[in-house]
Amino acid sequence: xxxxxxxxxxxxxxxxxxxxxxxxxxxxxxxxxxxxxxxxxxxxxxxxxxxxxxxxxxxxxxxxxxxxxxxxxxxxxxxxxxxxxxxxxxxxxxxxxxxxxxxxxxxxxxxxxxxxxxxxxxxxxxxxxxxxxxxxxxxxxxxxxxxxxxxxxxxxxxxxxxx
Length: 163
Prior knowledge:
It is a single chain. By secondary structure, the protein is α+β, with helices and mostly antiparallel strands. The chain has a domain at 56-163: Chitinase A, domain 3 (Roll), CATH 3.10.50.40. The protein has four helices and seven strands, in the order αααβββββαββ. The protein has helices at 2-17, 34-43, 45-48, 111-117; strands spanning 54-55, 61-66, 78-87, 92-95, 102-105, 125-130, 150-159. Strands 1, 2, 3, 4, 5, 6 and 7 form a seven-stranded antiparallel beta sheet that branches. Strand 1 and strand 2 form a beta hairpin. The longest helix is centred in the N-terminal third of the chain and has 16 residues, at 2-17. It is globular and about 65 Å long.
């Protein structure tokens, strides 16, 4: 009988020991979507997660700094703007002269910049984050290496300027 009681007591102690608090598990990190992974590859993790950037399924990102007024530019419209184009590492590859804004027809711009400008109104200012396939793609364009993501800072001054 003593032996049975010892055995029951031992089993009971082991069973109760298994009921103790579990070790804290690290919270599971949610899986990143393919779009999030691509953004990180193109722009780096910090920039890809920066608040205030509206990312599209295409990989294009727009961070509106100042809303403008009036109509949205269409493909055939001309825009007067001050801009700076940079690579993700900060290397500047193009800019308009601050005292002489550039005038372009929207359809003449690289696809990503045209799409970004299409979301802006005159007087607006934004950063446009362009993945490689909406920029220059696999070709070298001046200081821009093939397959480079681009960042444009755009100050859209006027839609369809007179001169």
